[in-house]
C-alpha cells in the first residue's frame, strides 16, 4: 500500500509508520530485506499468497527474498554441471541444517547410519538430541561396501545414510558414488555434509547424493563474520514440502543480514578455494619433508590412503591438513605458542591460516582413551590454510619447529 500522507493527522502516527519503498531505483547488489512481514494490497492477494506458500512472501520465518536468493545461489552451485535444478533452504547454523534434515526425515525407531569420525557437534546432536527421540545411530566403516550392505540389511526400519568426506582428523575420504549406488539399491536417502569441500571442490549431488548440507560459517561465507547453514536437494516435493514445512515451524531460518554476508562471501568462493587448496598442497608437502613431523594427513599427497579416490571425486584437495609432530603433548603446546602468523582459532575456512591443537582445545574435556580412538593424539595439529603466501606460513611453522627438541 502506498501510504497516504494526508491520512496522518498526528505526530505519533507519522513516527509509527514505515516509509514508502523508493522503488524507482534498481539495486545492482542484493538488498537486505530486513522485514518480518510482507504487505498485501488486497485480501485476495493475501489469500493467494498464503495458499501459494512457499514461493510468495508473507512472513520472514517462512521465506524472505534476501535469504531465498542466497539459498538458491548455493543450490545452483551444488547442482552445477548436472543440468538439473536444485532447491535450498538457508538456516541459522550448520547444526540447525543437520537438525532440520534429520527431524524432517526420521521419526522414533528410525536409524541414522553414519561414520564414527563426523564433525563432533553432529555426533553429539545425533546422540543427545535425536537419542532422546529414540532415533538410533549406527556407525559403519564406509570404506567397505560389504559392511554398508550388511548394516542396511540388519535394520529393517526407515533409515538414512549420513556422511562427511574428507573427515577429521585423518582427512579420510568416502567414495560418494559407491555409497549412493548402495543406498539407491536399498531405497535409502544419502545425506552428505559438504562443508570442508564446498561445491568448488566436490559436488555430491552429481555423484548421486540426495541431500547436501553445509555449515556456511566455514568456507561458503569464508570470512568468519557470520554463522549459517544450508540444506540443498533436487527432490522438489521433499524440499518445498516436508523440509520447508519443518523449516518454517522449527524457526531455524537464517536472518537476512547473515544471508547477505554469505552472499558477499560466495562471490569469491571459486578463487578462494582454488588458492587455499593450492596453498595447502604446498604446505602439506613441506610438512611431509620435515624431520620433526611424523605424519601428514592431506588427500593431495600421494602418500595419503585415499589419494586416488580424492583425485577422482574432488577438484583440488581442500584447505584442511592435519599432522602429528614427533614428541609430546608439551612439545605440541610449545609449537602452538611459538607461531606468529597462524592464528589459534577453533574454527576453519577463513581467509587467514588457523591452527588448532584438538587435545588442548576442542577435545580437552574428552577422556584421553576416547579421543585416541578417534585419532586425536596428544601431538595432532590441524591447519585450515588461508590466502596468505604459503612461503610465509611455511616460514612461521619452520621457525616454531626449531623451538622443540625431538
Ligand atoms: C562447523 C561444522 C558444522 C556445524 O556448523 P555450525 O555452523 O557451527 O553450526 C557441521 N559440519 C562440519 C563439517 C563443520 O565443520
Number of strands: 12
Count the helices. How many?
Answer: 15
In terms of DSSP E residues, the strand content is: 5-15%
Identify the CATH architecture of the largest domain. Answer: 3-Layer(aba) Sandwich
Would you list the SSEs in sequence order as H and E?
Answer: HHHEHEHEHEHEHEEHHHEHEHEEHEH
Tags for this model:
alpha/beta; Aspartate Aminotransferase, domain 2; Aspartate Aminotransferase, domain 1; seven-stranded mixed sheet; five-stranded mixed sheet; 15 helices; globular; binds pyridoxal-5'-phosphate
Structural write-up:
- The protein has 406 residues and is an alpha/beta fold.
- The protein has two domains: 45-266, Aspartate Aminotransferase, domain 2; 269-401, Alpha-Beta Complex (Aspartate Aminotransferase, domain 1).
- It contains 15 helices and twelve strands.
- It has a seven-stranded mixed beta sheet with strand order 1-7-6-5-4-2-3, sandwiched between helices. The protein has a five-stranded mixed beta sheet with strand order 8-9-12-11-10.
- The longest helix has 21 residues, at 269-289.
- The model has no long low-confidence stretch (mean pLDDT 95).
- The structure holds pyridoxal-5'-phosphate.
- Pyridoxal-5'-phosphate binds at residues 93-95, 119, 121-122, 164, 193, 195-196, 215, 217-218, 227, 229.
- Pyridoxal-5'-phosphate binds next to helix 4 and helix 5.
Topology:
Layout: H1 11-16, H2 43-51, H3 65-79, E1 87-91, H4 94-105, E2 111-114, H5 120-132, E3 136-139, H6 145-154, E4 159-164, H7 176-185, E5 189-193, H8 198-201, E6 211-215, E7 229-233, H9 236-250, H10 256-266, H11 269-289, E8 293-297, H12 307-313, E9 320-325, H13 329-338, E10 343-344, E11 354-356, H14 368-373, E12 380-384, H15 390-401
Helix pairs in contact: 3-10, 4-5, 4-9, 6-7, 11-15, 13-15
Amino acid at each position: 500500500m502506498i501510504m497516504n500522507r494526508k491520512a496522518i493527522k498526528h505526530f505519533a502516527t507519522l513516527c509509527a509508520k514505515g516509509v514508502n519503498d523508493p522503488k524507482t531505483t534498481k539495486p545492482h547488489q542484493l538488498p537486505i530485506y530486513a522485514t518480518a512481514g510482507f504487505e498485501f494490497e488486497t485480501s485476495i492477494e493475501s489469500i493467494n499468497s498464503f495458499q501459494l506458500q512457499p514461493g510468495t512472501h508473507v512472513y520472514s520465518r517462512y521465506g524472505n527474498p534476501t535469504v531465498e536468493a542466497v539459498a538458491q545461489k548455493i543450490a545452483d552451485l551444488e547442482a552445477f554441471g548436472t543440468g538439473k535444478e536444485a532447491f535450498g533452504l538457508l538456516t541459522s547454523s550448520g547444526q540447525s541444517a543437520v537438525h532440520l534434515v534429520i527431524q524432517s526425515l526420521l521419526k522414533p525407531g528410525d536409524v541414522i547410519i553414519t561414520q564414527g569420525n563426523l564433525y563432533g557437534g553432529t555426533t553429539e546432536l545425533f546422540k543427545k538430541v535425536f537419542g532422546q527421540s529414540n532415533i538410533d545411530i549406527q556407525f559403519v566403516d564406509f570404506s567397505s561396501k560389504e559392511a554398508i550392505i550388511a548394516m542396511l540389511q540388519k535394520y529393517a526400519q526407515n533409515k538414512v545414510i549420513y556422511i562427511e568426506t574428507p573427515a577429521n582428523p585423518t582427512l579420510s575420504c568416502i567414495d560418494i558414488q559407491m555409497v549412493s549406488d548402495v543406498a539407491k539399491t536399498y531405497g535409502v536417502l544419502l545425506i552428505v555434509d559438504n562443508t570442508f569441500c564446498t561445491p568448488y571442490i566436490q559436488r555430491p549431488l552429481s555423484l548421486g547424493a540426495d541431500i547436501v548440507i553445509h555449515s556456511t560459517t566455514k568456507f561458503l561465507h569464508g570470512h568468519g563474520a557470520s554463522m549459517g547453514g544450508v540444506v540443498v536437494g533436487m527432490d522438489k516435493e521433499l524440499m518445498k514440502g516436508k523440509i520447508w514445512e519443518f523449516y518454517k515451524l522449527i524457526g531455524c531460518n537464517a536472518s537476512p543480514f547473515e544471508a547477505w554476508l554469505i552472499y558477499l562471501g560466495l562471490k569469491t568462493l571459486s578463487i578462494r578455494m582454488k588458492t587455499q587448496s593450492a596453498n595447502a598442497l604446498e604446505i602439506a608437502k613441506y610438512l611431509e619433508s620435515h624431520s620433526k613431523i611424523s605424519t601428514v594427513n592431506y588427500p593431495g599427497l600421494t602418500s595419503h590412503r585415499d589419494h586416488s579416490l580424492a583425485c577422482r571425486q574432488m577438484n583440488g584437495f581442500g584447505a584442511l591438513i592435519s599432522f602429528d609432530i614427533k614428541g609430546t603433548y608439551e612439545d605440541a603446546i610449545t609449537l602452538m605458542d611459538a607461531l606468529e602468523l597462524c592464528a589459534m582459532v577453533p574454527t576453519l575456512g577463513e581467509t587467514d591460516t588457523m591452527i588448532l591443537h584438538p587435545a588442548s582445545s576442542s577435545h580437552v574435556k574428552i577422556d584421553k582413551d576416547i579421543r585416541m580412538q578417534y585419532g586425536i593424539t596428544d601431538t595432532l595439529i590441524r591447519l585450515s590454510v588461508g590466502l596468505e603466501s604459503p612461503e610465509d606460513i611455511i616460514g612461521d611453522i619452520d621457525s616454531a619447529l626449531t623451538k622443540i627438541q625431538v
